[in-house]
Design a protein that fits this description.
The complex is a heterodimer of chains A (306) and B (266). With 306 residues, chain A is α/β, with parallel strands linked by helices. Chain A contains 11 helices and 14 strands. In chain A, helix 3 crosses helix 4. Chain B is built from 11 helices and no strands. In chain B, helix 3 crosses helix 6, helix 6 crosses helix 7 and helix 7 runs parallel beside helix 11. The radius of gyration of chain B is 19 Å and the shape is globular. Classes of the chains: A alpha/beta (306), B mainly alpha (266).
Chain lengths: 306, 266
């Protein structure tokens, strides 16, 4: 289906002093796909993104974007890339519109063209009404949208989105998702980091899961769910007897106890849990679809990250 | 190995026309509020001229053969070159680098960090030009500068500004936080403001301090040059003052860019 490799990392490594932030990873991003880098805080996602964006030098390994080495052709790579960083680095001294104009100048976009694009982009992210407003009068959702618009000012072939919806309300998040999908339809290759598994499941064609600087798994969200947690999850209220009973009933299933609830993951086909629920009456029982978050927690554990 | 490490501090930056994009950004911000920006540099020298020139000056004997107020007026032009560019590339650049993350935003575009810092330095020099020109106009109107050579003060203000911008950027590259800028202000710019032949001839200072002022206080050279041009007293000694600035400015320009790279690119 995909053929052309746009971004390729081989043995990519980044050390900050003694800290090994990215540990010898390999991955490929294909043209036109939405590629997700998932992982808990401190996994090395942002560091990886910054190397792709040519702002952090590599410690070791090889990283190419559109066939160009990041260390050698940073300028050419940055010309074809749009970046929406995690933190708000909009220019507080300027209005919404002028932020886009000043940014366009860094890409050598002529003034008339920049103004045209800025107005189109403000329409695209639904900020036309805020055109002449200063940045500190925007809500965090509006700022995220403006950062997305700014990342698009150079009509990039590659769009790098670092935690694009962190801290947003559901309305704002859905709007951003919508825009990301429409950009992908226009042929933009998207690389995004997130620790929201729903976001990855919604948007990404392929994902890699990182932890402690390493890639620990990769595949499409659907493949990963099927492989690691099966199709369905049974959840019931915690009870010692029920737990023992379920252990006997599903000897090859994985059982977790979380927040006073028992979760049962089975590799068996759909329907096994429905059968047992029709025979026994557990307290607060429910069957739900397995999701990417189950995979994520299984692979990266439940220990809190700094 | 050791020489290699020193060499990294003086690696020549690769710069392009894109430096001006950064300069334009800072200029855009300045022009948005230009009316407010013109008032302080206009008022400050007036207070000094009133208090020190007219007030204290009535009790002070002529310095280097000039009436006291004529003596200090060009020094006020020179110190405004220092303070405006120094402030711009310490507090101003630090806010853009650390609080606003403006540098991060720019280096995600085709610009390099070297170009960002060079643009900041040129803007610092421009601030020196703008602010000192305002002071210059004031002293011209008051008849305190009267030589046609005053026109050369304009390019001089850019050179002096670039020097102090580069020194300031070195401090910005190593400062742990914004409060620490109090130290270079108290230990560097304030003593210079007082001891660089600004308010009295440096020949009044003990010989050892005179040597220090000539070797290590760049403002001494800026003041000597500005004063000479304002009153039309040219001499070959001025070439020494000018050479001092012409040699040290590129040195600190390159050093400050490399120090900032060390701070920001890990």
């Amino acid at each position: 289906m995909h053929s052309q490799v746009l971004i390729e990392a081989k043995g990519l490594t980044k050390k900050f002093g003694e800290l090994l932030a990215v540990d010898n990873i390999n991955f490929q991003v294909f043209k036109g796909e939405c590629f997700g880098l998932l992982g808990p805080n401190g996994a090395g996602k942002t560091t990886t993104m910054k190397m792709v964006n040519c702002v952090l030098p590599l410690t070791a390994g090889k990283l190419t974007v559109a066939g160009m080495e990041v260390a050698e052709q940073a300028r050419d790579i940055k010309k074809m890339t749009g970046v929406a960083p995690q933190e708000d680095n909009l220019d507080p001294d300027f209005t919404v519109f002028h932020n886009l104009i000043v940014y366009a100048r860094y890409f050598d976009i002529p003034k008339a063209e920049a103004q045209k694009r800025a107005d189109e982009l403000l329409k695209f992210v639904q900020l036309e009404e805020k055109r002449n407003v200063l940045i500190d009068q925007l809500s965090s959702g509006m700022k995220r949208r403006l950062i997305l618009a700014r990342a698009l000012i150079n009509e990039p072939q590659i769009l790098i989105l670092d935690e694009p919806t962190t801290g947003l309300d559901p309305q704002a998040r859905h709007l951003i998702w919508d825009k990301i999908r429409s950009l992908q339809k226009q042929g933009v290759t998207i690389v995004l980091t997130t620790h929201y598994m729903e976001e990855a499941a919604q948007l990404c064609d392929r994902t890699v899961i990182m932890d402690n600087g390493k890639i620990i798994e990769e595949g499409s969200p659907g493949e990963l769910i099927k492989k690691h947690v099966g199709e369905e999850v049974l959840e019931v209220a915690y009870d010692e007897e029920v737990l023992n009973f379920l252990r006997n009933a599903f000897p090859d299933a994985r059982l977790d106890v979380v927040n006073d609830r028992i979760q049962v993951f089975s590799n068996q086909p759909r329907g096994v849990f429905t059968q047992i629920l029709s025979k026994f009456n557990f307290k607060a029982a429910m069957i739900r679809d397995a999701n990417l978050e189950d995979v994520f927690l299984k692979l990266t554990g439940r220990r809190l990250r700094e | 190995m050791k020489t290699g490490r020193v060499a990294t501090y003086f690696k020549l930056p690769k710069l392009s026309y894109r430096v001006w994009r950064v300069w334009r950004r800072d200029e855009d911000v300045f022009m948005k509020t230009y009316k407010a920006n013109f008032i302080p540099p206009l008022l400050e020298p007036l207070f000094y001229l009133l208090g020190l020139g007219f007030g204290l000056g009535a009790f002070v004997q002529p310095q280097e053969g000039l009436p006291y107020i004529v003596f200090i007026a060009p020094a006020l032009v020179a110190s405004s070159m220092m303070t405006s560019s120094f402030f711009e590339c310490t507090y101003g650049s630090f806010v853009r680098m650390y609080y606003q993350k403006t540098f991060d935003a720019i280096i995600a575009t085709p610009l390099s960090l070297e170009e960002v810092i060079a643009g900041e330095l040129l803007w610092g020099a421009t601030k020196s030009f703008i602010n000192s020109s305002i002071v210059l106009v004031v002293i011209l109107l008051l008849g305190l500068a009267y030589s046609p050579f005053f026109l050369l003060i304009l390019p001089l203000s850019f050179l002096v500004g670039l020097f102090f911008a580069a020194i300031a950027m070195c401090f910005t590259a190593i400062t742990p936080n914004i409060d620490s800028f109090n130290y270079p202000t108290i230990l560097f710019t304030t003593p210079m403001f007082i001891l660089s032949g600004t308010f009295f001839s440096i020949s009044a200072l003990p010989e050892a301090v005179q040597v220090i002022a000539n070797l290590f206080f760049p403002l001494t050279h800026a003041v000597a040059l500005t004063r000479a041009l304002a009153v039309g007293r040219l001499s070959t000694r001025l070439l020494l003052n000018l050479s001092w600035l012409l040699v040290t400015t590129p040195f600190f320009f390159v050093l400050s860019i490399n120090l900032m790279k060390k701070r920001l690119i890990k």
